[in-house]
Amino acid sequence: MTERELFEAIGHVDDDLILAADAPVKKRRRVVHLHWRQVVSVAACACIVLGGAAVWRSGALRKSSIASEAAMAADVPEAAAETAPAPDMPMLDAAAPQAADADEGAAVEKDSAASGIALGLAQCVQIDGVLYFDTGSAVDCPPDRGADGVIETSVDRDAFPETDGCSNFGTGYSYWVTEDGVAIVEMDGAYWEFMAN
User: Fold this and answer.
1) For 60-106, how does the pLDDT look when each residue is reduced to its tens digit (9 = 90+)?
2) Of 155, 192, 158, 153, nearest to 171 (Cα)?
3) Tens digit of each residue's pLDDT (9 = 90 or more) over 1-52
4) CA–CA distance, 111 with 183 (Å, rounded to integer)
5) What residues contact residue 189 under an 8 Å CB cut-off, 6+ apart?
6) What are the residue boundaries of the structural domains of the chain, listed by start?
7) How far apart are CA 52 and CA 70, in angstroms?
8) Cβ–Cβ < 8 Å for 165, 152
9) For strand 149-150 and strand 124-127, is the pairing parallel, antiparallel, or unpaired?
């Protein structure tokens, strides 16, 4: 191409094309930001709606449970409510069938909430590094051999024994350990079965 041909080719170019080529390039990021803003706003609205529904539902459930408890309380006659056993009685009987206290046979208070908490832990004894827990089952026939040992130390009723020959229900009780992971403990003339855990 000669100089003359080049000059004629440039002369035929529109002025608009020359100005457009001279202008800086525009970036198209605005569309991408607008897209993410829409997604974020939709997600925020969904969170607000779901959170409101959860709060409304928990409030409705709470109101219905309070209403049902009130209705049940209204149905129970006052005389029956006074003679009904305390709620911790079944747990107390299962946890301590012999109901003997570690301090010289003092009576256990079965009707107080504090006694239910204190007796929430089952009676247990540690023998040879193994904890044996009271099953609540009495054994009809005692072992036909001498005792393997005597419980010599005791911890609080709501604690686990940490040494061998220690219990959380008192001292002075003879015990036998069988080969099948059972300990028999003699308490006040009765033989109780304790299982290894």
Assistant:
1) 767 777 777 766 766 665 555 455 555 544 454 444 444 444 444 44
2) 153
3) 788 888 777 777 777 887 888 888 776 655 555 577 888 888 999 999 998 8
4) 30
5) none
6) 1-84, 90-196
7) 27
8) yes
9) unpaired
